[in-house]
Amino acid sequence: MIVIVDERELVTEGYSSLFDREGVATAGFAPGEFGEWVSSAADTDLRSVRAFLIGDCRDGAISPRQIRDRTGAPVIALSEQHSLEHTLRLFESGVDDVVRKPVHIREILARITAIRRRGSEEAAYTEVGSMRIFMDGRDPEIDGEPLPLPRRERRILEYLASNRGRRVTKTQVFNAIYGIFDEEVEENVVESHISKLRKKLREKLGHDPIDSKRFLGYRLVF
Hints:
The chain is an alpha/beta fold. The protein has 9 helices and 11 strands. The strands form 3 sheets. It has a 5-stranded parallel beta sheet, with helices on both faces. It has a 4-stranded antiparallel beta sheet with strand order 6-7-8-9, with helices on one face. It has a two-stranded antiparallel ribbon with strand order 10-11.
């Protein structure tokens, strides 16, 4: 999930729509709401956040260092001002990157992956046996051949790969894929997505690489 903060609801809704086309869940906040949420959100909710995008906010309304106190997820400023002084001021505030608008959603996703990779939180891809799982929206490869997947199934596989070695619950998968504030989708939809994903992987690999245990969740097996 990606969190977007901006004074203008039209902006947060616009970015949410664009990210949704890429199969990436989002949550939009006004600056005042965000400050209250990030200071009180449960650790499990914050672990679902892939990155924070900070748009147009009053000076001092958002503190990147406050975010850093709770999570190591990248903080990226979306800037509409093309001045060196403004860019330097944003970096001094503690953001990891400054992106000048307009910018394509896929560029933002690539920058997020690059920042996480530098922080050793996320590699460009994860290899599980003969399967290579990318973290930038590309379809996975099996024995070098792409395996086309619907965006939700691809994101679930990416999430499992980014948590390799750890078991994740159905709720954690749901929050990462649909966002923690999506009340229009039932959490049980995760089971349907994973069932379809397992079938496709089993057909290509000859075995099921996703281990599941009731009440405990899922993990990729090597």
